[in-house]
Amino acid sequence: MYLLQLAFKSLGNRRFSAILTVLAIGLSVTLLLAVEKVRTEARASFASTISGTDLIVGARSGSVQLLLYSVFRIGNATNNIRWESFEHFSEDRRVDWAVPISLGDSHRGFMVMGTNGDYFEHFRYGRRQPLAFKAGAPFDDLYDAVLGADVARELGYDLDTEVVLAHGTGAVSFVDHADKPFRVTGILEKTGTPVDRTVHISLQGMQALHVDWQQGMPARGAANVSAEAARELDLTPKAITAMLVGLKSRISTFAVQRDINQYNGEPLLAILPGVALQELWSLLGVAEKALLVVSGFVVLTGLVGMLTAILSSLNERRREMAILRSVGAKPRHIFGLLLLEAASLALAGILLGLGLMYLGLWVSQPFILTQYGLYVPITPPGMYEWGLLAAILAASVLMGSVPAWRAYRQSLADGLSIRT
Amino acid sequence: MLNALIDLNATTYAWPGQPTLLDIESFSLLAGEKVFLKGPSGSGKTTLLGLLGGVYVPQSGTIELLGQNLASLSAVQRDRFRADHTGYIFQMFNLLPYLSVVENVTLPCRFSTLRRQRALERHSDLTVAALDLLNGLGLADPALLARRVTELSIGQQQRVAAARALIGSPELVIADEPTSALDADSREAFLRLLFAECDAAGSSLLFVSHDSSLEALFDRALSLRDINRAATAPELT
């Protein structure tokens, strides 16, 4: 115990370099814990993008691709599914509800999604939370639009704002639907999912936009159909991009999935969102692991800094060691003293890192919630975090044994003679 | 008759790969004796102190401390033996800068149970024992004792070192040029205080120095060159 006191006092005597060392370790530990926190929260948030949907159905492609465009609004569908297919499966007796999704247009970088009123009723995210309206109501008229929270906030839109949609999904589009503007009738609450970045319109509205188009280009002159004239036409869509399906009983999931995949009408693909999310996450897992590895190396750098600080102090402390030896300290006391120093520095660094992480979390929590819709709860470190911290401490003790061993050898060689 | 505290018998030592540095036919120091050993630098003085401290073991011959042959003990046992029975005073900067005056003095009691027990036999606790010794060495002023050891004068530092060497009444105090950093007047004053406290603690004193002006104060004075058969011609400087 007295050795620990000595170690503390000796460190106190070199407090400037000790504080710097603790700071370096502390910051690296903060980084590691923060990366770990973001990693787990991002993963949780990712997994909660969609819930309560039993199957996602799209044209036959890959399951990850279908998930990406239907849920994350990333990339494009290779093909559409016919409206007849949607009708066929939505009337299946095992199906509780089916919501059509049609993508392909955008508004200033935000995806436009055509759907019907059922979407707001059946779509679930997180822990089966339904979508809630911050203002207004679902679309009713042909040219009504419901905005995700981010769309409204970033573009400064409010209810009754007129919105002109653009063809295609690029942030900058050269072809727009200026002849058929939409009116904002509802703004959704923040969900922290891609819903926030989506403009929702009715399928019929989507159809009206393209009713007069020919070969991917707007009609010119007489062929042009005005917004009012379009109301008179049959706006039943011919095709949709994907459909979300809820089943009456989850037991039938695989049977329905098989039926859809073997549908004779056209090649379709049905995926289980949970399975596809797992598959996608395992792809992203590489980046996630890389991040963890990098922060691991930062911690290692911090520890190497500590090693350097202790090693470089050894020479000027030969007198201290000789004095300790002369008053009866054994070489193993010298070894223990230096090991305790390393362990104390690392422990202080770890505590500082924990403190900084929670302080940072506490300060930035509201900001992260409003900016990214990510609620990062302040929870005590889990088993994994404690394991990481214990590993850091163990590594520091291991590294501390290098200067400790040197001092041990040195004090054996120097004996009681003071060399400086 | 008094027992020999230190007894060297045909002791030789050479550093690896070097000629024999020390070859001492016989040297002894009796309990309670204060001996002046003259040794210029390079004469093997430091090595001799290392041998007496049990840090090194002679190649041949024996070193007995309190009748115990040091070579028959393990390194750990020699460390404990040294801590229990020997106090050291070095030339200068004897103190750990991060400990208080009293903490520096009580340091040997942290590593030697025997010296701790001895200190506690006469005093209620270690701090009292340290203050008593410091008082005897002329360091009684509380303001002085509250200072950082690096803020004390060299003479004061050496007296703190003497108190540390004497706490727990070790049988032997080895002083290695403790006065060389002091001026002539304070040297003698320091020695008189040291002698008085050695007497009070019942410790023998082996005082090693190249400065023979002090040797008259001691019970006995001898030169390392005279007892060391391996001594070479005086160094050319």
Helix and strand run of chain B: EEEHEEHEHHHHHEHEEH
Number of helices of chain B: 9
Q: Describe the biggest sheet of chain B? A: 5 strands, parallel
Low-confidence stretches of chain B: none
How many strands of chain A? 15
Number of helices in the DSSP assignment of chain A: 13
What's the CATH topology label of one domain in chain B? Rossmann fold
> Portion of residues in helices of chain A?
40-55%
Radius of gyration of chain B: 18 Å
Residue-averaged pLDDT of chain A: 86
Question: What is the helix/strand order of chain A?
Answer: HHEHEHEEHEEEEHEEEEHHEEHEHHHH
CATH H level, superfamily name of one domain in chain B: P-loop containing nucleotide triphosphate hydrolases
Q: What is the CATH class name of one domain in chain B?
A: Alpha Beta
General form of chain B: globular
Largest interface: A-B, 21 and 30 residues
Number of strands of chain B: 9
Offer a concise description of the structure.
Chain A is of the alpha+beta class. Chain A has 13 helices and 15 strands.
Structural overview:
The complex is a heterodimer of chains A (420) and B (237). The mean pLDDT of chain A is 86. Chain A has 2 domains: 2-46 and 285-414, no CATH class; 55-271, no CATH class. The longest helix of chain A is centred in the last third of the chain and has 42 residues, at 273-314. Chain A has helices at 2-13, 15-47, 63-71, 83-90, 118-122, 149-155, 203-210, 227-230, 253-261, 273-314, 318-326, 331-372, 383-414; strands at residues 55-59, 81-82, 95-107, 110-115, 124-125, 129-130, 133-136, 144-147, 162-163, 166-167, 182-188, 198-202, 239-240, 242-247, 268-271. Chain A is elongated. In chain A, the strands form 3 sheets. In chain A, strands 1, 3, 4, 7, 8, 9, 10, 11, 12, 14 and 15 form an 11-stranded mixed β-sheet that branches. Chain A has 420 residues and is an alpha+beta fold. In chain B, the strands form 2 sheets. In chain B, strands 6-7-8-3-9 form a 5-stranded parallel β-sheet, sandwiched between helices. A 4-stranded antiparallel β-sheet of chain B has the order 2-1-4-5, covered by helices on one side. In chain B, strand 7, helix 8 and strand 8 form a beta-alpha-beta unit. Chain B has helices at 45-52, 75-85, 101-111, 113-122, 126-136, 142-145, 154-166, 184-201, 224-227; strands spanning 4-13, 22-30, 34-38, 60-65, 68-69, 86-89, 172-176, 204-209, 220-223. Classes of the chains: A alpha+beta (420), B alpha/beta (237).
